TrEMBL record:
The UniProt record lists the keyword Phosphoprotein: no
Domain Peptidase S9 prolyl oligopeptidase catalytic as annotated: residue spans: 480-681
Domain Peptidase S9A N-terminal residues, every copy: 21-379
Alphabetic keyword roster: Hydrolase, Protease, Serine protease
Ranges of biased composition (kind: Basic and acidic residues): 11-28
UniProt protein name: Prolyl oligopeptidase family serine peptidase
PANTHER family attached to this UniProt entry: PROLYL ENDOPEPTIDASE
Pfam family, one: Peptidase_S9
Keyword match Protease: yes
Region listing for Disordered, in residue ranges: 1-28
């Protein structure tokens, strides 16, 4: 069926149409006795099929060894004089939050100062805590807000912490479990958005109201600063600590935000496009464009002195301008410099820019090895121009480099990770497939040196302007590549590999292009002799789960096995489930009949039909996922079973949207996916 055609009504379509009844709505009751019993029964069957074999245990243990390895790089962020790290291993499954000095970090075995033991805290408080991070008060960094989640959900508890005494402050700021947002104003004041009671949250479940909360006063007495609309995604406020200026953001949808400068408690609109991203630092305003603005193209990065901007000047300097092959990825401030990351045909680049009296100067950072990524891991906007770069590739084990902007010295290699699998005889290549409308779609292939069609795992995402970049995955290397498998990554439209135009080409009514791109890559893998349909497996999670769900329903003949993880699948009700309303700018509004006509064409739950030859299927999700509702996965599996097709299902009770909350669970869930793929591709005996 052509992706732009409107499908004919089927029994399944009528049962789940806007004016019909969904027979599996009962599975949306996340913690209801019936749905949980349904999940447990399916878990039992899936465990018996895949997890109770020596081969599964072997893969699980190999992945767990990678995750828990003492020799992996303890990635850090600098805050003042200290480098902070969060560490999980077999002895500390919930994790240790710790810090050290740069001098100590240079050692093979640094002397770590443990600030918070999350395992000990969970035991002492009788709570299933999962670490969600810490937000410091700059520039002193002597106070922070720690976020802890119950079981890994997006909602978390916020508590003020003193890193010097290693204690939660008894009179400190504390917020109960919610999808809160906070911003330090000063030592005794916060901007806070949280669940203040009825009407205080948006339809997406995020804060609609921002208040100013002073230390020592009840949260109920916090003063309202700003209110958004019920249909907004969220609102939040923050202070730029260098200038003392306060800013407000009202996220109208996922890509449009109205920004305000708070002057004497009055929100003054900022004259920037609603769909742009902005930052303010060191007296400069930067604007990243998603669409053309005046003479500036979509995807450009602009800068201007903020005082000039406030006075009406709009003479921006262009810091980055894309072409047909390039795209801006990110930018990060040090105290005096701006680090600009970009892509050229999905190969990363990094430049160091510095403002001065005569304008901005630029110089390249350290060269990037072929088919590798460089990611700015840490900067401290208030203390110097040091920056830390994470460098890795599909076959290149990770390294951590230290550089200083403006200092012409080679990068200092702070840490190297040993290889987790033997890459001898393996290669990385980039190819281009031609999609249905003639667009060239890049994709990477990591494969053994030997020729011939091999079992291949294809991964993709294609949404929310997120690019898939080269990176090292020791678990994948051991479980798949070292066993003779080939790995491929499709850089399809909907992602950010070529900037906003690449993303916007697959929005809403054009969503089919992402799926056509992915199908084109799958077909190209076969045409090149890299694999065959029977030996081609595919996996994806979240929006990538929607992608693989569409591969299952639209292109089943292209694949030998499919894995769908923490997915969106019921696109008729996605906007009514948990955070789903926040994604309507990506997919469309199912309540609008005109939009439902195109949404239904990429709603896998509604595209299932009898009489099709579907490939073997594994669907996984998490009960604690409060971002993408587990009902998507449950209902899809129930409908597949109703139609008489075999399907394997596993629901992790913990884990949140990531599907797992500790290394044991991560190793188990990944091993389950790999075991399914090897088994269903029929290649265990030959390659396991």
């Amino acid at each position: 069926m052509d992706s732009t055609d409107t499908p004919q009504d089927t029994e399944a379509e009528r049962a789940t149409s806007p004016d019909g009844d969904d027979p599996y709505r009962w599975l949306e009751d996340v913690t209801g006795d019936g749905p949980l019993e349904w999940a447990r029964e399916h878990n039992t069957g899936t465990l018996a099929a895949y997890a109770e074999t020596p081969r599964f245990a072997e893969i699980r243990d190999e992945i767990r060894e990678v995750l828990d390895a003492e020799t992996r790089i303890p990635y850090v962020v600098r805050r003042g004089d200290y480098l902070y790290n969060f560490w999980q291993d077999a002895a500390n499954p919930r994790g240790l939050w710790r810090r050290t000095s740069l001098e100590q970090y240079r050692n093979d075995k640094p002397d770590w100062d443990v600030i918070l033991d999350v395992d000990a805290l969970a035991e002492a408080e009788g709570q299933n805590w999962v670490w969600h991070g810490a937000t410091f008060l700059a520039p002193e960094y002597d106070r922070c807000l720690i976020s802890l989640s119950v079981g890994g959900s997006d909602a978390d508890v916020t508590r003020e912490f003193d890193p010097a005494t290693r204690e939660f402050l008894p009179d400190g700021f504390t917020l109960p479990e919610a999808k809160s947002s906070t911003g330090w104003v000063d030592r005794d004041t916060l901007y806070v958005g949280t669940d203040f009671g009825p009407g205080s949250l948006t339809d997406s479940g995020y804060p609609r109201v921002v208040k100013r909360w002073r230390r020592g006063t009840p949260l109920d007495d916090a003063v309202t600063v700003f209110e958004g609309e019920q249909a907004d995604v969220s609102v939040h406020a923050w202070r730029d600590q260098l200038s003392g200026l306060d800013f407000l953001t009202r996220s109208v949808d996922f890509y449009h935000r109205k920004r305000y400068l708070l002057v004497d408690d009055v929100p003054v609109p900022l004259d920037v496009p609603d769909d742009a991203e902005i930052s303010v630092h060191a007296g400069y305003l930067t604007v990243e464009l998603r669409t053309q603005w005046e003479a500036h193209p979509a995807g450009a990065l602009l800068a201007i002195e903020f005082d000039r901007f406030r006075s009406g000047d709009r003479d921006f300097e262009v810091l980055f301008a894309p072409d047909e092959r390039s795209a801006l990825v990110s930018y990060h401030w040090t105290e005096h410099a701006l680090l600009v990351s970009s892509l050229v045909d999905v190969q990363p680049r990094l430049e160091v820019l510095r403002p001065g009296p005569s304008g901005w100067t630029r110089s390249p950072s350290a060269p990037v090895p072929e088919w590798c990524s460089v990611r700015v891991l840490s900067t401290d906007r208030y203390h110097g121009d040091e920056y830390l770069l994470a460098v890795d590739g599909y076959l290149t084990a990770p390294e951590l480099h230290r550089l200083v902007a403006g200092v012409d010295e080679p990068a200092e290699v702070l840490k190297r990770s040993p290889a987790r699998f033997d890459p001898t005889g393996m290669s990385v290549n980039q190819y281009f497939a031609t999609s249905g409308d003639g667009t060239r779609i890049p994709y990477f292939v990591v494969s053994p040196e030997s020729s011939g069609a091999r079992p291949t795992l294809l991964n993709g995402y294609g949404g929310f302007e997120i690019p898939l970049l080269p990176g090292y995955d020791g678990g994948l290397g051991r479980a798949w590549l070292a066993r003779g498998g080939t790995y491929a990554v499709a850089n399809i439209r909907g992602g950010g590999e070529y900037g906003p135009r690449w993303h916007q080409a697959a929005l809403k009514e054009n969503r089919h292009r992402a799926y056509e791109d992915f199908a084109a890559v799958a077909a190209d893998l076969v045409t090149r002799g890299i694999t065959t349909p029977e030996r081609l497996g595919v996996s994806g999670g979240s929006n990538g789960g929607l992608l693989t769900g569409n591969m299952f329903t639209r292109y089943p003949e292209l694949f030998g096995a499919i894995v769908i993880q923490v997915p969106l699948l019921d696109m008729r009700r996605y906007h009514q489930l948990l955070a789903g309303a926040s994604w309507m700018a990506e997919y469309g509004d199912p309540d609008d009949p005109a939009q439902w006509e195109f949404i239904r064409t990429f709603s896998p739950y509604h595209q299932l039909a009898a009489g099709r030859l579907y490939p073997p299927l594994l669907v996984t999700t998490s009960t604690r996922d409060d971002r993408v509702h587990p009902g998507h996965a449950r209902k899809f599996v129930a409908r597949v079973e109703e139609l008489g097709y075999p399907v394997d299902y596993y629901e992790n009770i913990e884990g949140g949207h990531g599907g797992a909350s500790n290394n044991e669970q991560r190793a188990f869930m990944r091993a389950l996916s790999f075991a399914f793929l090897w088994e269903r591709l029929g290649l265990w005996e030959k390659l396991a």
